[in-house]
Amino acid sequence: MNPDDVTPWPADLAHAYRAAGLWRGRPLGSYPWEWADQWGDRTAVVDGERRLGYRDLAERSDALAEGLAASGLGRGDSVLVQLPNGWEFVVVAFACLRLGVVPVMMLPPHREYELTSIGAHVGVKGIVVPDTWRGYDHQALAHRVASALPEPARVLVVGDDVRPGSVDVRTLIERGGDPSARREALDARAPSGSDVALMLLSGGTTGVPKVISRTHDDYEYNARRSALACGFDAGTVYLAVLPAGHNFPLASPGILGALFSGGRAVLLPSPRPDAVFAAIEAEGVTSTSAVPAVALRWASAAATTSADLSTLRTIHVGGSVLSPEVAARIGPALGCRLQQVYGMAEGLICYTPPDAPPEIANGTQGAPISPYDELLVIDPDGNPVLPGEIGELLTRGPYTPRGYYGVPDQNAVSFTPDGWYRTGDLVRITPEGNVVVCGRVKDLINRGGEKISSGEIETLVQEMPQVSEVAAVAMPDPEVGERVCLFASLHPGRTLTLEEVAESLTARGVAAFKIPERLELLPTLPHTSIGKPDKKALRTHLLTPNPT
Length: 548
Ligand code: OOB
Fold this sequence. Notes:
GMP Synthetase, Chain A, domain 3; (2,3-dihydroxybenzoyl)adenylate synthase; alpha/beta; Luciferase, domain 3
């Protein structure tokens, strides 16, 4: 990793954030010992039968940090981390944070293309993978990637089958030694709060994801303010089901939010309703998070489960469009409150309050976590819209970095000269200051000059009782440029025709030009790694000639 490829916050703002106590100037890796001193052997992390107390977490993270240092990794180096949700993910993350080694958070479905291009872009010195996962040999993948990278990279493996040439992570975690001597030695070489702590991937669905570097200061603030906005406390038992390397389950408030509150993080590698419900019952889970499609699956499955879900107080739902009608079903079906989350790996996070009235909880995506977050809604000419009108959201703030890592040309497009991040999201802001996501700028379908927001059509079609999941994409057309093509998956036993879609939308008073002109039914929609409809794949599907 090259620090010159990181765009810093302006010095005067950094100073102001520090002076106001937003940035604490402490590395994230120093917290496990603070928690251990406060909470001792209280359970911090649960993964099936495996439980780690706070002291365990601190000692094992230190042991691994020492092992990583012995293998030649140090402050400012970076490693790709591709691990399924499990206790080792948390220890690996904290070991890196302790040493100042930057984990680049990959997702389990990534393969050679993503690992090699991102590994080369960042200049990683290691790749942390499971031996195999869901029948796929990640260890072999990591060795192929390592040999394709321009710089030598170690392969570090979590699992039973560690082959020659790989480093055994579990052996490093379990190694003996004097915890206090190690603690002192690692304290002495700790990174600073303003160093890059970790790297996240952007949620964009086009091309290779862009890399976002987050500092110890900014990410700690992200987790702390998120925990506050969601009322996390020492009684919180948070279930991480989405891939842990994504900002939502990691720090919004997620695993870090639970640990910062003295609570407990339960890691589960599958969103299957039976596994999720069993974990909720077994661990007394109080809070979890999901993208809308997953939350809806749980809501349907909850009707017939015999599992006791009564401990569940809150579900956080975010990541893609959720219509008010669908939102209203989720809480009652699961017997808990819904908090909507509008967030991004690039920074800004908004939540509806835990005690919001239904019109806010179901009808908005909430308000930013920090009074220092700046939101600006602009029209296509770049001028601010009138209050309450729809436009593209730009944002700046203490946990929204000023550029992607190492892509100055892209940064000139994605950030304004005065540091605003262009979210590409179409929003309006209610008089109370809540954000309502109305679609995406880049997700507009241009039908002969008429602009149609995919998000808007999706929200409307999602409300049809037949529909399980839906995505609207532009279908190239020689006559009008683009027409709306709708991809949908249906609930079991249901049918849907293009005419029924048109009737339903017309009945809702939707303008004729927005009515989809093609419907493709699929058993399930393809998804991006985090579970959003993969529009890139759907567009490709559209362009592939029909074999019939
Ligand atoms: C989360 O992060 P990313 O980086 O995967 O994706 C960010 C994008 C946003 O720009 C927006 O287009 C979309 O995902 N999005 C939503 C949304 N939340 C995110 N669109 C509509 N409604 C929402 N509630 O997706 C993410 C990160 C942290 C917390 C939650 C989600």
